[in-house]
Amino acid sequence: MQAFAASNPDVDAIYSACGPPVLGAIEARKKSDPFKPGLLLVGFDALPDEANAILAGTETASIAQFPKKWAPPR
């Protein structure tokens, strides 16, 4: 995360295609936060740990998906 931030200092949002990487990004930011204030951090899957991070203010949002609700009945 620190190497990414050093080479991309103007990043204002990070999107993770699933929950675990965004949780890793949150942990990395606790050690050293090279990003500017207001970084949007969005995950995918809405894992319980992500919900806790959103409530704690360390994750901006997460996308919950429910594929069974999307598919038409067979």
The whole-angstrom Rg is 14 Å
Number of spatially distinct domains: 1
Q: Tell me the strand percentage band.
A: 5-15%
Q: How many β-strands, per DSSP?
A: 3
The average pLDDT score comes to 85
Helical stretch tally: 4
Protein name: Periplasmic binding protein domain-containing protein
Organism: Pseudarthrobacter sulfonivorans
What does this structure look like?
The protein has about 70 residues and is α/β, with parallel strands linked by helices. Helix content is about 45%, strand content about 15%. It has one domain. The protein has 4 helices and 3 strands. Strand 2, helix 3 (about 50-55) and strand 3 (about 60-65) form a beta-alpha-beta unit. The longest helix has 13 residues, at about 20-30.
Descriptors for this entry?
alpha/beta; single chain; elongated; 74 residues
Short description:
The chain is of the alpha/beta class.
Could you outline the blueprint of secondary structure elements for this entry?
Layout: H1 2-7, E1 13-15, H2 19-31, E2 40-44, H3 48-56, E3 61-63, H4 67-70
Parallel strand pairs: 1-2, 2-3
